[in-house]
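Changelog excerpt

This revision adds worked examples to the README so contributors can see how folded entries look when concatenated. The first example is reproduced verbatim below.
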Amino acid sequence: MNPLFTMDDVEYYLVKRKPKKGKPVYHARFLDKKVDPAGRRIVKFSKTTGQTNESLAHKIVTRWIDEGVVDAVPTNLKKYLLNFWNSDKSDYLKCQDSIEMSPL
């Protein structure tokens, strides 16, 4: 098992993968807090760093976390869709209410 790293509540580990052509590059696998039925942590998503050097790959992942490219809070599509048409919770509807529209 690869070592697990934690930064700002984001947990990840690096794996080396060989592309069809070229040198192996490191991919960051970001973990969810949930576990599967076998008790293993679920991978939220994986993203290539494009780096062949492990320390440079860690620096890239650190930058992603600092810049907010990768976030500890997962996007919940179901919650977003349910709240989209709720006038109290939807930023879209609040914005639309502030725009004056005239009938055609």
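The second example, added in the same revision:
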Amino acid sequence: METKVIAVTDEDMLMVSPDWTWRGKTGFKVRPSWFYTVDRGVTRLDLSSEQARTLLIGRLVELVPIEIRDDELICHVRVDDWTFVGSP
């Protein structure tokens, strides 16, 4: 499914629009598998979050769903035909 990244939180989550729909559920929170920024309180948090924002905000991405957990879509995220985040 294709959507646009509108925000990257400092908690390893993407916000997308339009909302994703998968297996009868809908939402706007996406947690890429295998993608982690550093935890809160760690000195590199701002840098890693800012780099993710620079690379992803405003980009059209393809979501390849794996599962839904706590109203978040856990998935692979592909940008420009290559997997940006989400491949082991």
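Reviewer comment on example two: The helical segments are 45-56. The two ends are 20 Å apart (CA to CA).
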